[in-house]
Design brief:
This protein has about 140 residues and is mainly alpha-helical. It contains 5 helices and 2 strands, in the order ααβααβα. The protein has a single domain (about 20-130), classed as Growth Hormone, Chain: A. Strands 1-2 form a two-stranded antiparallel ribbon.
Length: about 140
């Protein structure tokens, strides 16, 4: 009887500690893409400028991943500020699961808000392609 109770308790503890949404970052990426598409349909102040990493993100050499996400989060304006928590979730996921990505200081540039939205959208399309390299 006590063995059965112990087994039941172990099963409950294991199920509680198991991740319930392993692809939550993918949902966040899709949500961000939808919000960006909706915001591009509305008129925006195009003379406003934002700082971004000047080099386009490369999933084969994922350097400056956290810097990209940090600058994109800082650059959110207007109704795009809804993306702040989404980008934070994506950043924490990649920080936890892809610690191999070297974080060097990358060059930045100042772009218009319109260019910022385009760069962010392209980044969100590319980022799911990052996979941890096979161990040798």
């Amino acid at each position: 009887m006590w063995l059965r109770n112990l087994l039941l308790l172990g099963t409950v503890v294991y199920s509680i500690s198991a991740p319930t949404r392993p692809f939550q970052h993918m949902d966040a990426i899709r949500e961000a893409q939808i919000l960006l598409n909706e915001s591009s349909k509305t008129a925006a102040v195009t003379n406003e400028t934002v700082e971004v990493v000047s080099e386009m993100f490369d999933p084969q050499k994922p350097t400056c991943l956290q810097q990209h996400l940090e600058l994109y989060t800082k650059g959110l304006r207007g109704n795009l500020t809804k993306l702040s928590s989404t980008l934070t979730l994506i950043a924490s996921y990649y920080k936890q699961h892809f610690s191999f990505a070297p974080e060097i200081s990358c060059e930045t540039e100042i772009v218009t808000l319109k260019a910022f939205k385009e760069k962010l959208y392209k980044f969100l399309v590319i980022i799911p392609l990052v996979w941890e390299p096979a161990q040798k």
